[in-house]
């Protein structure tokens, strides 16, 4: 076959279509082109895909983890459109069919979890010395895991503002704080501490040495200068002029013009020294002017039918630069005109120059591209959409909001798009009417975002075409993704589909796919019997009482993975399971990670069923690390912040206070129904145990506010009538404990240390019976804590006096 470098790629789509014609002739060409458009939106991706498939078309059918990432995306899109020959590439480490987002040094692709494991094996945490995924880095650059990371003391924004005040004492403190807060995402305290450490380690950063700064520190200097703070703005190392230093050249920051000059080469077409915009298949560099006239970038204009460089791509087709002529208007930003202006129909026309100019937004104070100009000043896109001045009545329903397009609100556009997708010949089938009702019930903006996703449109197309029946079995045949889960939850909540335990169903499907990697047929059957009779039988009995929790499913998966890994390891050692000895098991445990202890259940099951010899066993894993309770001063400092800081989300404030004051587990908090908050006149109580707990001020106000403002993030279906105090992303379901724990960790609240510290204080003040009635603790747990109250107090004192490992 012709080498990829010699293949003419003036029409990469045709190359891919011809390759697919040889692989699967029965697949229509329009289906292949639609899958290609879904998987590779940019021209560069399509060219990359065409090159690799010209060299090795078997990548689509072999499942080898090779080639660029777009190969997996194209295979996934083909399967969603009904292909029978395409095979998803499997991870080079775990053989899973997840998206292979990372590339190893040997040229094979791996999934993100496997990449994290390989990176963790190369680094170790500076605190616990265990290999782990790096969560943060200390001030000295050392890696630290999630379990050991603790936020440093102090307010980084106030400390940075103090450092700026020492350089510019006459600056307005409010303006300085606003500029500091604008350079990092809201609530990301870690990035603020990184910026604080950089300013402290580079004393001249604010006095003229800004060329050595990071991108965030450079944005801080620019933001301070924009608000009038007298800091020394650094000059470009190349031209010596004071300009925004947006690039790095030879480890020093420079302006865009100098960076482009330093990286200019001779264009292969015109011969002039210019910045490389693209390269031909043979590597010839091209500037932006010459690249527009390349054969693969020429289009046939839908208005003039001439083959010219593209000027704008519209829904009706591409337009050349001559046919795409914006309306002549007077620019509302600079006042010049008449000029060719964009967004003329909105009443805020902008010329091309003003569209490419950054300005300070009067709403958020950030330096962004302005979308509108008001009497107070310019507004960025986010602030303009929230400003009531931008609201107009919908021409269809009269709703006053920031309109979506063509004078229509988001709800009308959403309803029209849902009807267009579900209808055939202008009518919606009666069996699909419940799906229509679910999609238009609530959340117009989120619903439009969901409809724009290719994965969700594939689901609706499958329902309309009849390839996917409207039941659980039909949805299970689709490629598993979040869109399927969102739609299934909404249909179950609306009563269209019967409720079922999704964790259990997902576990059953996972077992089938996970055991396929076992090469030996007898061993594969053995692992499946172990999964069926050891795990599924037990979990099925427990699921009859309560729905299966994610932790239970994760434990079962870990045991099955360890069983598969043990069988593979024994085969590498030249033995089989029946010939396994205790020496093999001990070597298996000693030569690997602690996850190998998860094979203990498999070994016990094999011994009971006489698949291995008597007396063989894997010992239980003993976790040596203890839970260090949260320091009392730190606990009360966080508590005071949660009680009085109205800028924090009310969900995080209430959940964090339940952990730090009443020792509630995040699993219990996430499942609290709205009926647990009892409002009687001016008093507010919370039912955690058998007796309502009277909430003090201001916790009672926070509970009332949460009950009134609670909302989920459901994109399909309605969350306004949810029965949960913390609604989740899936319709009718509560917020997951994992997601709640992540949100609390951003505030410095860790569940186990916080609960331990709270229980240590409560057990010395209240008897066991009161703890059981008010907090819902079991009598055994409450009694154990109260009987050990003195011991816990001594233990807390010892921990307080014990030097911290990082000190």
Quick gist of this model?
This protein has 34 helices and 26 strands. It has 807 residues and is mainly alpha-helical. A three-stranded antiparallel beta sheet has the order 11-12-13, with no helix packed on it.
Please give a structural write-up.
This protein is mainly α. Helix content is 44%, strand content 10%. It contains 34 helices and 26 strands. It has a 3-stranded antiparallel sheet with strand order 11-12-13, with no helix packed on it. Strands 14-15-16 form a 3-stranded antiparallel sheet. Helix 27 (650-662) crosses helix 31. The radius of gyration is 31 Å and the shape is globular. The termini are far apart. Residues 1-8 have low confidence and may be disordered.
Helix and strand topology:
Elements: H1 12-23, H2 29-39, H3 43-55, H4 59-62, H5 69-80, E1 102-103, E2 109-110, H6 112-122, E3 136-137, E4 143-144, H7 156-167, H8 173-181, H9 189-201, H10 215-226, E5 247-249, E6 252-254, H11 256-262, E7 264-266, E8 273-275, E9 278-279, E10 285-286, H12 288-291, E11 298-300, E12 307-314, E13 317-320, E14 327-329, E15 339-342, E16 350-351, H13 352-355, E17 358-360, E18 367-373, E19 378-380, H14 381-386, E20 392-393, E21 400-401, H15 410-422, E22 423-424, E23 427-428, H16 433-439, H17 444-451, H18 454-465, H19 472-476, H20 482-493, H21 502-514, H22 521-543, H23 550-572, H24 582-590, H25 600-608, H26 632-644, H27 650-662, H28 666-670, E24 677-680, E25 683-686, E26 693-694, H29 699-709, H30 737-745, H31 751-762, H32 768-775, H33 779-787, H34 789-801
Antiparallel strand pairs: 1-2, 3-4, 5-6, 7-8, 9-10, 11-12, 12-13, 14-15, 15-16, 17-18, 18-19, 20-21, 22-23, 24-25, 25-26
Helix pairs in contact: 1-2, 1-3, 2-5, 7-8, 7-9, 15-17, 21-22, 21-23, 22-23, 23-25, 26-27, 27-29, 27-31, 32-33
């Amino acid at each position: 076959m012709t080498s990829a470098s010699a293949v003419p790629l003036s029409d990469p789509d045709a190359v891919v279509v011809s390759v697919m014609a040889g692989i699967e002739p029965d697949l229509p060409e329009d289906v292949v082109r639609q899958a290609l458009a879904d998987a590779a939106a940019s021209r560069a991706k399509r060219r990359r895909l065409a090159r690799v498939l010209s060299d090795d078309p078997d990548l689509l059918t072999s499942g080898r983890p090779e080639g660029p990432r777009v190969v997996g995306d194209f295979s996934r899109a083909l399967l969603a459109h009904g292909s029978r020959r395409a095979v998803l590439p499997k991870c080079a480490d775990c053989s899973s069919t997840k998206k292979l987002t990372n590339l190893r040094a040997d040229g094979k692709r791996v999934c993100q979890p496997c990449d994290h494991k390989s990176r963790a094996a190369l680094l170790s945490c500076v605190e616990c010395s265990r290999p782990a995924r790096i969560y943060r880095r200390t001030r000295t650059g050392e890696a630290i895991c999630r379990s050991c990371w603790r936020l440093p003391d102090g307010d980084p924004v106030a400390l940075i503002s103090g450092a700026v005040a020492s350089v510019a004492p006459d600056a307005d403190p409010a303006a300085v704080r606003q500029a500091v807060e604008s350079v990092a995402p809201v609530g990301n305290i870690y990035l603020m501490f990184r910026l604080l450490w950089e300013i402290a380690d580079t004393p001249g950063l604010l006095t003229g040495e800004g060329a050595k700064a990071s991108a965030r520190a450079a944005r801080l200097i620019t933001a301070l200068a924009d608000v009038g703070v007298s800091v020394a703005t650094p000059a470009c190392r190349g031209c010596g002029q004071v300009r925004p230093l947006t690039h790095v050249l030879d480890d020093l920051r420079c302006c865009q013009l100098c960076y482009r000059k330093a990286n200019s080469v001779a264009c292969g077409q015109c011969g002039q020294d210019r910045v490389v915009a693209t390269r031909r298949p043979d590597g010839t560099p091209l500037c932006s002017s010459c690249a527009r006239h390349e054969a693969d970038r020429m289009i046939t204009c839908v208005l003039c039918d001439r083959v010219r460089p593209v000027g704008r791509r519209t829904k009706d087709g591409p337009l050349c630069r001559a046919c795409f002529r914006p309306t002549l208007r007077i620019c509302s930003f600079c006042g010049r005109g008449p000029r060719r202006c964009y967004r003329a129909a909105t009443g805020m026309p902008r010329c091309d120059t003003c569209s490419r100019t950054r300005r300070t937004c009067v709403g958020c104070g950030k330096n962004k591209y302005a979308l509108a100009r008001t009497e107070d000043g310019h507004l960025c896109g986010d602030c303009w959409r929230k400003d009531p001045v931008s609201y107009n009545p919908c021409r269809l329903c009269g709703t006053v909001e920031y309109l979506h397009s063509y004078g229509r609100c988001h709800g009308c556009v959403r309803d029209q798009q849902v009807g267009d997708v579900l209808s055939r010949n202008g009518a919606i089938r009666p069996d699909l009417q419940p799906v229509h009702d679910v999609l238009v019930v609530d959340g117009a903006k989120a619903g439009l975002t969901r409809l724009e996703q290719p994965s969700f449109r594939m689901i609706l197309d499958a329902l309309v075409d009849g390839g996917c029946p409207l039941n659980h079995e039909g949805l299970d045949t689709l490629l598993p993704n979040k869109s399927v889960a969102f739609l299934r939850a909404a249909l179950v909540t609306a009563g269209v589909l019967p409720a079922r335990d999704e964790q259990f169903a997902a576990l059953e499907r996972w077992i089938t796919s996970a055991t396929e990697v076992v090469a030996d047929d007898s061993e594969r059957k053995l692992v499946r019997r172990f999964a069926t009779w050891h795990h599924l039988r037990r979990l099925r009995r427990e699921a009859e009482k309560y729905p299966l929790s994610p932790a239970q499913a994760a434990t079962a998966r870990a045991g099955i993975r360890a069983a598969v890994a043990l069988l593979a390891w024994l085969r590498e050692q030249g033995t089989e399971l029946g010939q396994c000895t205790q020496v093999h098991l001990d070597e298996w445990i000693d030569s690997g990670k602690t996850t190998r202890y998860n094979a203990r259940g498999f070994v016990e099951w094999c011994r009971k069923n006489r698949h291995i010899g008597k007396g063989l066993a894997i010992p239980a894993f003993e976790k040596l690390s203890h839970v260090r309770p949260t320091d009392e001063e730190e606990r009360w400092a966080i508590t005071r912040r949660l009680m009085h800081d109205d800028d924090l989300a009310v969900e995080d404030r209430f959940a964090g206070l339940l952990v730090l004051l009443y020792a509630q587990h995040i699993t219990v908090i996430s499942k609290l129904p709205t009926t647990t908050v009892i409002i009687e006149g001016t008093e507010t109580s919370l039912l955690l145990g058998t007796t309502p707990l009277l909430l003090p001020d201001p916790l009672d106000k926070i509970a009332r506010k949460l009950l009134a403002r609670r909302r989920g993030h459901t994109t399909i279906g309605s969350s306004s009538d949810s029965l949960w105090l913390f609604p989740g992303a899936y319709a009718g379901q509560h917020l997951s404990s994992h997601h709640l724990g992540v949100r609390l960790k951003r505030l410095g609240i860790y569940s186990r240390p916080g609960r331990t510290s709270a229980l240590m204080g409560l057990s010395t003040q209240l008897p066991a019976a009161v703890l059981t009635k008010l907090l819902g603790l079991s009598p055994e747990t409450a009694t154990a804590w109260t009987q050990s109250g003195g011991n816990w107090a001594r233990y807390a004192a010892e921990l307080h006096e014990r030097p911290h490992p990082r000190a």
